[in-house]
Amino acid sequence: MASIFSSLKNAYQLFKNVDFEKLDQLSKKIDLPKMVETISNLDDKQLQGMMKMMGGAGRKKEIPAIEGDFYQLGEEALNDEDRALQLKVRAFLEKEVKPIVNEYWLKAEFPHELIPKIAELNICGLTYSGYGCAGKSNLMEGILAMEMARIDTSISTFFGVQSGLAMGSIYLLGSEEQKQTWLPAMQQLKIIGAFGLTEPEVGSGVAGGLNTTVKKQGNKWIINGQKKWIGNAPFADVTIIWARDVDDNQVKGFLVRKGTPGFSVEKMHDKMALRIVQNGLITLTDCEVEEVDRLEHANSFKDTAKVLQMTRAGVAWQAVGCARGAYEAALAYTQKRKQFGRPIASFQLIQNHLVEMLSNLTAMQTLCFRLSQLQDQGLLTDEHASLAKVFCSMRTRDVVSRAREVMGGNGILLEYDVARFVADAEAIYSYEGTKEINTLIVGRAITGYSAFV
Description:
Blueprint: H1 2-16, H2 20-27, H3 32-40, H4 44-57, H5 73-77, H6 80-107, H7 115-120, E1 129-130, E2 133-134, H8 138-151, H9 153-173, H10 176-187, E3 193-196, E4 213-217, E5 220-231, E6 238-245, E7 251-257, E8 263-267, E9 279-290, H11 301-336, E10 338-339, E11 342-343, H12 348-376, H13 382-406, H14 418-430, H15 435-447
Helix pairs in contact: 6-8, 8-9, 8-11, 9-10, 9-11, 11-12, 11-13, 11-14, 12-13, 13-14, 13-15
């Protein structure tokens, strides 16, 4: 009797939860008795699998957060104050830069309205002590360079020229009076700087001699020559010009102010990369510079190389940022883009590309972390910086290429960002020393033989 009541109770519960209208619609499509018979013959394991499949069909799949720092290097290496600064800069870039960057990149114009907003972040000259600078670690500076390039490599380059090359030349090689005169205002971005080393006919061969010459006449220096590819030059207030002294054949550095007679800048056009960066062709014709504007401690190319060594690490971090931006954009795209009724992120070949991208990105990040640690310890060498620049710029090329590939035709549209990263990676590959030149620097260090011409 008890078993009969139990069966009736179960039947009551079953019928109470049945939607008979849906059941009627289902009976018109399938043979219900046969389906019930089939299900009743399933073993426990088969039933569990079927129920799991049916239970998960209506649930929205939880997608992991998009995170390019797979080994959590930034989170682990930074103290709370520096981590907060990193996130503050990231939030600024997401809010202020990302929405406008494609528009300005397409127009090849610089968003000057961002300069005072960047100044409010108080991160210019981050590693320098005094003169209004924060005196933070090179690791922190590298991470911020990566954060900027993650959104736009052009903005990162503008900042690198200002904070690294221009301010760095004065900080490392200027007199105390020159530091006091220029650095506080440059730190606040009230004065914009540029760095004039590369020439129309002299790129990687600057160590072998510059065509731009300088000669002392009384208490003035007369500079003649040209500089090319000079970032920030069209709107800079001061440009560091490097020239070869005709009297002793040594390279010297000068602070050339905007509007100086004999100093003219022509904006370069039609670039396929770093289009927001305003590059200039500088012509110096009997340009007179006072002795007070000669960098006091810049007396040979070895002095110039001190600045380049310091900033080359920053370029390696830029490469990481460019790769990370492309990877994260591609990953987000694959999670949303559907083909054959499924997100393409669920396809094996797409996952293979994503993992290859992440592998390269993580290797680049770990290399740059160690590079910055060496820099903070005072152990950084030219070959250390060059190896990072070579490896990261090469791997970035591979990452952005795969990012474009997983996005198919949409990968060449500016609105998806990856096309911009693909183009900008080509500039990173060449500037601050080509792959070949940096390779030979490392090769000389490990073999003991110089293969330079």
